[in-house]
Specification:
The complex is a heterodimer. Chain A is mainly α. In chain A, 75% of the residues lie in helices and 0% in strands. Chain A has a single domain, classed as MetI-like (MetI-like fold, Orthogonal Bundle). The relative contact order of chain A is 0.14. In chain B, strands 1-2 form a two-stranded antiparallel ribbon. The chains are: A mainly alpha, B mainly alpha. At the A-B interface, α1, α4, α5, α6 and α7 of A face α1, α4, α5, α6 and α11 of B. Chain B: Belongs to the binding-protein-dependent transport system permease family.
């Protein structure tokens, strides 16, 4: 009897927690008159794709979606490459400044990156003078900052995975005549794949969700905005287009949700590996 | 391979990482401190006026400004409410999750996963819509149509805090749940054999065993909630009417990019960094004391 009560209670809580997401999807499919009705109801009898159409055509949401994807994927690819090399160097080699570097990696993770908006803004401004692609108003600037923010943690985490690969394997590969390069990419790289998945998810989500830097860097180039900013386009002081906002939010949330569900197991084991390492 | 050769290869591997981190993290940190020592306004940015070295002038101005102290107080208070709320909700649900059947637990975890993965901007707008004065479902249920949650300073802060708790409790819940599950069954059986009540078991057995994990999630939450930006910015439209819902992060942004007081904005950034590093030091110290190995 008591268990039934507890379970009922837990299910109610789950419903409350999920409700905002349910409401988002529901509102995205509601026709406009139901959205701005004074008596909103938690169902709809006339589902429609109008809001999605409006989001994708009027506000050019598709373009921003592509921008967001491009930034996030480039960040993921580069951070995998760079952090894999760095993690290998930090675990497989002994050199003098190794410990110093490790401690610096740890400290850098504690710096609130939000505080760096001002210097980064000026940095990107001067970078843009010589290499426009990485300057303000270009997606390159976002790629650069998110790459920098995701690297310390990615390196830190991959270190544990690289360390877990037995050194004998490298010796065996060398005996078999594999070059260092070949060992690195054909033996070691596939073996640390679970760690790569976990780190890339975190880098992806970081870049995908960013609002602050997108807002700071992409000032006038409307065509280079990313999703979080584009969502703000619909938010008007007096009359919000809630249908389109909810359709946009749905489009923005679904990739992350799918990603999260797919990798949650690997993520947990990846995080555990990093802690153990 | 010789030691020297090893070092050379290692640095070749490290070069890209060092380049990115040096250029985009270390250098900006140095620049942040530097800018905070100058009078850096619109005229200087456009290149019309020469830079004027102020020394600690920006900090003096900041510390003498009543608004800075109000914002600092609000930031601490807001973070405190969010942290306590997140921990209480997360811990409570983690305990409940151990007492229900698998499918019920999975339902709860799935809902939490959804809240967890919602991007901050999307989450903020969803909550705004749910609590909208005229078209919001919450006001319809409560029968208070026309009531604006974001107009009053305290209801606005409360609404944002609720949103922050909604998307951050899952982390605490999942971590604590894993922690509870890791406690060996024998320990709990022994406690039960000794006649300990459920409350006594929770308080004197489970809680001390979970202390290291609780510490980690607490400090992690403090660090996150102290620097909330998106939720405040989106939900209170940039810090509320006349800036009464500002927190440090948004305040720094507004000073720098809305008021073009880049020096002052950088100074706020430095203050925030120092405060957070202080918390982090405390965290590392506490971790060490609880016997955790780095």
């Amino acid at each position: 009897m008591r268990r039934w009560l507890t379970e009922g209670f837990v299910l109610v809580i789950a419903a409350v927690v999920a409700f905002p997401l349910f409401w988002m999807v529901l509102s995205a499919f509601k026709p406009e008159d139901e959205i701005i009705s004074a008596d909103p109801v938690p169902w709809t009898t006339r589902p429609t794709l109008d809001s999605f159409t409006r989001a994708l055509t009027v506000a050019n949401f598709g373009r921003y979606f592509v921008n967001s994807i491009v930034v996030a994927l480039i960040v993921v690819a580069l951070s995998i490459l760079i952090s894999f090399l760095a993690a290998t160097a930090l675990t497989r080699f002994r050199f003098r400044s190794r410990t110093t570097l490790l401690i610096m990696l740890l400290v850098v993770q504690m710096v609130p990156v939000e505080a760096l908006t001002v210097p980064l803004f000026f940095l990107m401004r001067s970078v843009g003078d010589s290499v426009p692609v990485f300057g303000l108003n270009h997606l390159g600037s976002l790629v650069l900052v998110h790459l920098a923010f995701s690297l310390p943690f990615a390196i830190w985490m991959l270190r544990g995975f690289v360390a877990a690969v037995p050194v004998e394997l490298e010796e065996a590969a060398t005996l078999d005549g594999a070059s260092r390069f070949r060992f690195l990419w054909q033996v070691l790289f596939p073996l640390v794949a679970p760690g790569l998945v976990a780190t890339s998810v975190l880098s992806f989500i970081h870049a995908w969700n960013d609002f602050l830097f997108a807002k700071t860097f992409i000032i006038s180039a409307v065509e280079n905005q990313t999703l979080p900013l584009a969502l703000q386009v619909f938010v008007k002081p007096d009359q919000n287009d809630w249908g389109a906002i909810m359709a946009g939010s749905t489009l923005m949330t679904i990739p992350v949700l799918i990603f999260f569900i797919f990798v949650q197991r690997r993520l947990v084991s990846g995080l555990a590996g990093a802690v153990k390492g | 391979m010789t030691a020297k050769g090893q070092g050379r290869t290692a640095f070749a591997y490290l070069a890209p990482a060092l380049l990115v981190l040096g250029g985009l993290l270390a250098y900006p940190i140095y620049q942040l401190v530097l800018i905070s020592l100058f009078d850096y306004g619109q005229e200087q940015v456009s290149g019309g006026a020469p830079l004027e070295f102020l020394g600690l002038g920006n900090y003096q101005k900041l510390l003498g400004d009543q608004q800075f102290w109000t914002v600092l107080g609000q930031t601490v208070g807001f973070a405190a409410v969010c942290v306590v709320g997140t921990l209480l909700v997360g811990a409570f649900l983690a305990i409940l999750a151990t007492r229900v059947r698998t499918w019920v637990r999975m339902t709860l975890f799935l809902a939490a996963l959804g809240a967890w993965s919602t991007p901050a901007v999307a989450g903020s707008t969803i909550w705004l819509f749910l609590f909208d004065a005229n078209f919001g479902f919450v006001n319809e249920v409560l029968g208070i149509q026309g009531f604006s949650w974001t107009f009053d300073k305290w209801t606005a802060f409360g609404l944002v805090a609720a949103q922050v708790i909604w998307c951050s409790f899952p982390f605490v819940m999942v971590t604590l749940y894993a922690g509870i599950k890791a406690i060996p069954g024998e320990v709990l059986e022994a406690a039960a054999l000794d006649g300990a009540s459920a409350f006594r078991t929770a308080w004197s057995v489970i809680l001390p065993l979970l202390r290291p994990i609780i510490l980690v999630v607490t400090i992690q939450s403090i660090i996150w909630d102290f620097k909330v930006f998106t939720q405040i910015y989106v939900m209170t439209n940039g810090g509320g009417i006349a800036g009464r819902n500002l927190v440090l992060n948004v305040y720094a942004y507004q000073q720098a990019f809305a008021a073009s007081e880049y020096g002052l904005g950088a100074a706020i950034g430095v203050v925030m960094t120092v405060l957070l590093l202080g918390i982090t030091m405390f965290y590392l110290r506490a971790l060490k004391r609880s016997g955790e190995v780095l």
